[in-house]
Write a structure and sequence with these properties.
Length: 148
């Protein structure tokens, strides 16, 4: 199991150092801000949705390695998916990082790298911040979402 943990740590560190889709998305028609006041993680999610599909997605902001990697990997995972599929993926991801039964981490692909977060409850908020902001953007919420 240590080799698997090392691999997962490498994936998270890689996405934290070189986040994918880290930019402003001028064509976004849905945006939301996510903020964790306790640790200072703060991201804006930009989404371009057309015909119920996430055509493009990006993010900007700052945060710890887990929150930045989660945002990066989230953008890769949901791009091209229907909004309902993104919601289902959010639910599965949330179950895995909170340690709830019912979802196999292999259903998440590379996002399974965050399964170990369930052992550190305070880090769950870091891992889910961008996901909550995505959800808010897709639902058209105007206020900043917080994991507190």
């Amino acid at each position: 199991m240590p080799d698997l943990r090392d691999l997962y740590q490498d994936v998270i560190l890689e996405h934290s150092k070189r986040p994918r889709n880290y930019r402003t998305l001028e064509a976004a028609n849905c945006t939301a801000e996510g903020f964790n006041p306790l640790c200072g993680d703060h991201f804006t999610i930009y989404v371009q949705v057309g015909d119920g599909q996430i055509r493009d997605i990006s993010f900007q902001g700052s945060g710890c390695a887990i929150s930045k990697a989660s945002a990066s990997m989230m953008t890769q995972a949901v791009k091209g998916k229907r909004t309902e599929e993104a919601e289902e993926l959010f639910q599965k991801f949330h179950h895995v990082v909170t340690g709830k039964n019912g979802v196999e981490s292999n259903e998440l692909g590379k996002l399974a790298a965050f399964a170990g977060v369930s052992e550190y409850p305070v880090r769950v908020k870091c891992a889910t911040l961008a996901w909550h902001a995505l959800r808010a953007a897709l639902q058209g919420e105007q206020h900043a979402v917080s994991t507190e």
